[in-house]
Amino acid sequence: MRPTPEQLAAAADGTLPDVVAPGLTVLFCGINPSLYSAATGHHFARPGNRFWPALHRSGFTDRQLAPAEQHLLPRYGLGVTNVVDRATAKAAELSAAEYREGGVRLVAKLARLRPAWLAVLGITAYRAAFGAPDAGVGPRDEPLGDTRVWVLPSPSGLNAHWDLPALAAAYAELRAAAA
Q1: Which residue out of 42, 43, 49, 82 is catalytically annotated?
Q2: Where in this chain does the record put each Uracil-DNA glycosylase-like domain (predicted)?
Q3: Residues 140, 151: contact at Cβ < 8 Å?
Q4: Which of 32, 42, 49, 82 is catalytic?
Q5: I need a labelling partner for 49 at 20 to 30 A (CA). Which of 70, 130, 164, 168 fits?
Q6: d(CA 117, CA 28)
Q7: Which residues form the domain of 113?
C-alpha cells in the first residue's frame, strides 16, 4: 500500500532495521533510506527503485523479490544495510559528517557480521564515506577488514546514467566474482 503524504512526512529522520546475518556472501549497502522505504519498513521500496529487478536479473535471486520479502535475502546469502541510517527525501540532504560517521559504523558492522563482500550502492556514497574521491564502479583493491568491497551504481530511479540492463550487468559482475 502506498504511504500517504502524512506518512511520508512522519518518516523523515526515521530508520530501517538492517536485513543481515553473520557470514553473508554479499551485504548490499544503500546510501540511506528514502522516506518511502522508512514509511513502509522495506528497503528499496519506492516503485521506481531498480534494486529488486537488478538483483534478480543479475542472477542473485531465482525470482524477483518484492520489497516486503526482504526477510528472504539471507536465504540467498544476501543482506541489506545503509551507509547512513537516517531517512531523507533526497540523499543530497545528508552531510559529509553523516557519510564519514556512517563509514565508521559500517566498518564495525562488517567486523561483526563478516560478509565476504560489501556492495556499496552509490559511487558518491562510497567516496564520501571512505574518503576515496577517485573511486569508480567495480571492485576495490582495499578490503574493509576481511570484507572485499565492490562499488555499484545506485539503483535509484533518479540515477539516469544507468538503465536496468546496465545495472543488472554490473550486479552480475559482482555475482560472478562472489561465486
Answers
A1: 43
A2: 17-175
A3: yes
A4: 32
A5: 130
A6: 8
A7: 5-178
Does residue 159 carry a catalytic annotation? no
- By the 8 A CB rule, do 49 and 126 touch? no
43 is known as an active-site residue: yes
Tell me if 157 sits within 8 A of 44, measured CB to CB. Answer: no
Whether 170 and 163 have beta carbons less than 8 Å apart is answered as: no
CA quadruple 112, 113, 116, 119: dihedral positive or negative? negative
| Cell numbers placing 111 | 567486523
Residue with cell 556512517: 102
- Entry pTM: 0.96
Which three cell numbers mark 66? 518484492
pLDDT by residue for the chain (179 residues), tens only, comes to 899 999 999 999 999 999 999 999 999 999 999 999 999 999 999 999 999 999 999 999 999 999 999 999 999 999 999 999 999 999 999 999 999 999 999 999 999 999 999 999 999 999 999 999 999 999 999 999 999 999 999 998 778 789 999 999 999 999 999 99
Q: How far apart are CA 133 and CA 153, in angstroms?
A: 15
Q: List the CATH number of the domain containing 46.
A: 3.40.470.10
What number of other Cβ atoms are within 10 A of residue 151's Cβ?
24
